[in-house]
Amino acid sequence: MTHDDTPAPATVATCSERLGTLAATAPVDIPAEADVYGTAKQNCLQLGFIEVDADCLARAWQAQTARTGRFDAQAWPDAPEDFGMSPLPPARRPNAFAACPERLGLYAVLPDAAWVGRMARAGVPTVQLRFKSDDAAAIAAETRAAVEAVRGTDALLFINDHWQSAIDAGAYGVHLGQEDLDALAPEDLQRIRSAGLRLGVSTHGYAEMVRADAVSPSYIAMGAVFPTTLKKMATAPQGLARLGAYARLLRGQSLVAIGGIDAERLPAVLDTGVGSVAMVRALIAADDPEATAAELTAAVAAGVH
């Protein structure tokens, strides 16, 4: 194995501007002969990555160094095999969920079936029902109403969290958060898969992306890209540079960017390579939601590379 430079200072220097430093500190002088894992992890912690993501990145950098036979301070890991991931796209894998379009376009996250219907009729290509309730009967009724609301339109409907109701109502897909995914038994995941539902999974960094990818979902959502007041986030906003790094790692997967995205920020988000952008407040808080939906749908479609 050869080394281009002292790993810690070189990596921090070359990556801090590109990825955004949440907790800027001076580079630590670590000898070039230090182990790649320990050095890379310290680098990533300096760059502001949380512990589990720093560990995930360090293991990937170690695998990349072993695979290539050299440490390159400028080669940020973005090969799926270095993260222990199976080849992409996931549709080729035996455990894959049903595929959805790689470019889902504008993705409207909506509070009830009435809003789902409005946005579907306005031409939004992908809609999600995020109905918050502990009443099982109300959940089932709202899910059925949402399925009916998109009938006759081209909109693809995902149901947030309530996978059993999504199966019963015949929805296009279901969206799960990390905790929801972790809580499912293997047989529950297989029920969703066997029912033909598409599966989307929320992620907030490298470790969660790797965990989500292991079940071969239909799409992976990445966020929050920018600060958002709609949901309390356990992690800091990811930012555009990290979003771009995530998109490079997951190229071939259907990707959705979410969190604080509006019309002004939209072009920069699309430049990262994602094929879909989720919006909530930009639609439901608009003076004319239908007109806004039409404009944003066209903007996303025109900006996707």
Number of domains: 2
**N-to-C SSE string, H for helix and E for strand:** EHHHEEHEHEHEHHEHEHEHEHH
The CATH homologous superfamily name of the largest domain equals Aldolase class I
Unreliable spans: 1-10, 21-33
Count of alpha/pi helices: 13
- Give the strand content: 5-15%
According to CATH, what is the topology of the largest domain? TIM Barrel
Main CATH class of the largest domain: Alpha Beta
What does the secondary structure layout of this molecule look like, with pairings?
Layout: E1 2-3, H1 7-19, H2 36-46, H3 51-68, E2 70-71, E3 105-110, H4 113-121, E4 126-129, H5 136-150, E5 156-160, H6 163-169, E6 173-176, H7 178-183, H8 186-194, E7 198-203, H9 206-213, E8 219-222, H10 239-249, E9 254-257, H11 266-270, E10 276-279, H12 281-284, H13 289-303
Parallel strand pairs: 1-2, 3-4, 3-10, 4-5, 5-6, 6-7, 7-8, 8-9, 9-10
Helix pairs in contact: 1-2, 2-3, 4-5, 5-6
Describe the protein in words.
With 305 residues, the chain is of the alpha/beta class. It folds into two domains: 2-77, no CATH class; 98-303, TIM Barrel. Helix content is 43%, strand content 13%. The chain has 13 helices and ten strands. The chain has helices at 7-19, 36-46, 51-68, 113-121, 136-150, 163-169, 178-183, 186-194, 206-213, 239-249, 266-270, 281-284, 289-303; strands spanning 2-3, 70-71, 105-110, 126-129, 156-160, 173-176, 198-203, 219-222, 254-257, 276-279. The strands form two sheets. Strands 3-4-5-6-7-8-9-10 form an eight-stranded parallel barrel, surrounded by six helices. Helix 6 links the parallel strand 5 (156-160) and strand 6 (173-176). Helix 1 packs parallel to helix 2 (36-46). The protein starts with a strand and ends with a helix. 46% of the residues are buried. Mean pLDDT is 89; it is low at 1-10 and 21-33.
